[in-house]
Amino acid sequence: MTAERSALQKRLDRATADLETPLAVIDLAAFDANAAALTARSAGKPIRVASKSVRVRALLERVLSRPGWSGVMAYTLPEAIWLVRTGTSDDVLVAYPTVDRGAIAELTADPRLAAAITIMVDSTSHLDLVDAVTAPGRRPEVRICLELDAAWRPAGPLHIGVRRSPVHSAAQAGALARRLVARPGFRLVAMMAYEAHIAGLGDAPPRRQLRGRAIRLMQRRSLRELIERRTAAVRAIREHAELEYVNGGGTGSVAATAADPSVTEVTAGSGLYGPTLFDAYRSWQPTPAAFFALSVVRRPAPRIATVLGGGWIASGPPEHARLPMPWMPAGLRLRADEGAGEVQTPLIGAAADGLRPGDRVWFRHAKAGELCEHVNEVHLVDGDTAAPAPTYRGEGYAFLG
Q1: b/e string for 28-46 if b means 16 or more Cβ within 10 A?
Q2: Residues 206 and 177 occupy one common structural domain
Q3: Are 50 and 253 in contact (CB under 8 A)?
Q4: Between 124-133 and 170-181, two packed helices, what is the crossing angle to 10 degrees?
Q5: What pairs with residue 385 in β-bridges?
Q6: Are the CB atoms for 120 and 94 separated by under 8 Å?
Q7: What secondary structure letter does DSSP report for 152?
Q8: DSSP state string for 77-146
Q9: Same structural domain for residues 155 and 189?
Q10: The dihedral sign for the CA sequence 161, 195, 267, 288
Q11: Measured distance CA(46)–CA(68) in Å, rounded
């Protein structure tokens, strides 16, 4: 492993030798290998790429050109509109409900956008907001997707999973579907159920074996329950509407979700970059493809090398796993009392003694697309060469910035 990292470091250093830090790169060989592995894991079901985990249009277009990948899962309606207008995709599902009145007005004023974009709903209140912007008789039909809560509720008020849709049971899904299809100006075309407690939770946390066993037990039992409930919900919704697709899963559950007969497509995105959170999965670990480099600027003491910047911390619960990881050269780690700093990050470990001001340290981010919020461009590394590609930020868009 150390030899492989050393070889990768030398290749990235050569490809970016004329560039200044901080800089971010995507290793295209690893990116493509991860895309192929995800396709194999989906067992023939199409994969919708999660744009929030990529945030580079050139890379969205690259993966969408591959067999087995189809459509985008966007995270905001303005982003979805932009992706359609730029020709990135003509099939975009917005993963979260929108209350952006300006974007709704733009969507409902353009038949091309309305045909290409599906918005998420879990209440008739979301339809009320669309109607308030543009009345049904004055707009093209708006495509909608009903979100089913995928969290596990094994007993009483116990809720395991993220808090998303209030629609949990098949009966609730059927009742909402009936109300949705009765509303003029809307067409119910899809259902989504994202099992975040399976797809987004590593089942092998480092140095926490008991927790890992508990997570695996929870995931096995909750998946069995979800398959049964999701199947019943799809059946209940189809009593009222013909669904074009049923979406589920994420990188961490592609194979398990694809095995659910009620699901017609799966979603993945983070697995293309291989961030550190996915090092804690037993079923499949993507090849690290996304890195960022910082320069050593001082040596404050023996066995300490300080780089400029570094505080690129991932969203989620405040814990060590959300910190960036110094990856190359091997043998470096963050100091517990300083972590990753806004303007400087001291690194310790045996490898620190070999570093001098001007040397580079390559890091991996804890999450995937959030890396792109720190840079205007990523450099796509192909062999020993690198070519810049703008991130969303570099194109002037920070949809949740």
Answers
A1: bebbbbbbebbbebbeebb
A2: yes
A3: no
A4: 20
A5: 382
A6: yes
A7: B
A8: HHHHHHHHHTTS-S-EEESS----HHHHHHHHT-HHHHHHEEEEESSHHHHHHHHHHS-GGGSPPEEEEE
A9: yes
A10: positive
A11: 5
Q: Are residues 261 and 379 in the same domain?
A: no
How many domains does the structure of the chain reveal? 2
Distances (CA, A) of 52 to 23, 60, 77, 168, 191: 20, 10, 12, 25, 20
> If we measure between CA atoms, which residue out of 373, 358, 361 comes closest to residue 312?
373
Three-class SS of residue 353? helix
SS3 content of the chain, % helix, strand, coil (to 5): 40, 25, 40
Give the CA distances from residue 147 to residues 46, 95, 400, in Å, rounded to whole numbers and listed in that order: 19, 9, 21
Domain, as residue range, for 333: 290-391
Whether 269 maps to a domain, the answer reads yes
- Give the residue carrying structure tokens 């300083």: 338
Nearest to 233 by CA among 165, 296, 182: 165
pTM, rounded to two decimals: 0.94
8 Å CB contact between 299 and 356: yes
Kindly state whether residues 132 and 197 are assigned to the same domain: yes
CA distance 95 to 147: 9
Report the candidate in 63, 70, 67, 119 with the shortest Cα–Cα distance to residue 90: 70
Tell me: do 372 and 264 sit in the same domain. no
Q: Name the 3-class secondary structure at 237.
A: helix
In a structure prediction context, what are the per-residue pLDDT tens digits for the chain, which is 401 residues long? Answer: 678 999 999 999 999 999 999 999 999 999 999 999 999 999 999 999 999 999 999 999 999 999 999 999 999 999 999 999 999 999 999 999 999 999 999 999 999 999 999 999 999 999 999 999 999 999 999 999 999 998 888 887 888 888 899 999 999 999 999 999 999 999 999 999 988 788 777 666 777 778 778 778 777 888 898 899 999 999 999 999 999 999 999 998 999 999 999 999 999 999 999 999 988 888 889 999 999 999 999 999 999 999 999 999 999 888 888 999 999 999 999 999 999 999 999 999 999 999 999 999 999 999 999 999 999 999 999 999 999 999 999 999 999 86
- The identity of residue 301, as a single letter, is A
Place of tokens 């030798």: 17
Domain match, 207 and 122 both = yes
Same domain, 265 and 296: no
Tell me if 301 is assigned to some domain: yes
- C-alpha distances out from residue 388 to 115, 148, 217, 256, 324, Å: 33, 39, 44, 36, 22
